[in-house]
Amino acid sequence: MLSYQELFSGLYQGYLRKLAQRTKMALEDVEQEARLLCWSVVVGKTTFDPARGSAIAYVISYLDKWAANESCQSYLVDDSKDQEVVEYLIESAQAEGANPLEQLLAAEHDVRKQEVAAAVCENLSLEDVLWFKGMSFRDISEVTGASKSQVHSRITTKFKG
After folding, report:
1. pLDDT digits over 135-157, tens only?
2. Of the residues 40, 130, 132, 152, which has the maximum number of CB atoms within 10 A of its CB?
3. 93-103: per-residue pLDDT in tens?
4. Do 16 and 27 touch, CB atoms closer than 8 A?
5. What's the chain look like in SS3?
């Protein structure tokens, strides 16, 4: 059996770039998902069966399904409120002459504070709330201070079943 590094290096990098474009995610996040999947296949934590095909074929099939799910999830994120905030900030900045970037950052900070309050009230973790808002693993790790792999592991473990 291959090591997970050998299995990962067997994936065509252009394929991973296309997945990143299709899911509108950072290439690093797609590569992290692929590495985690390769590791899971090698240690036997998946439904991979060598009698049914190669490990590379299993990984590519799984990543295709994952990318389709990620693409669909991006349509579920409600950006209408975000757009309203941006429009409001632009209008008020033009009227007051204030720096729109500073206002946008302040508004984002307020939104994050509200998300923290919602997470506490609904017994959801902050990572869960941010995940359902459509943030990437990397962005969630920056907000929470946890490593990207920890965030990925917690979220995927929680929502697997």
Report:
1. 788 888 888 788 888 888 887 77
2. 130
3. 666 555 667 76
4. yes
5. CCCHHHHHHCCCHHHHHHHHHHHCCCHHHHHHHHHHHHHHHHHCCCCCCCCCCCHHHHHHHHHHHHHHHHHHHHHHCCCHHHHHHHHHHHHHHHHHCCCHHHHHHHHHHHHHHHHHHHHHHCCCCHHHHHHHCCCCHHHHHHHHCCCHHHHHHHHHHHHCC
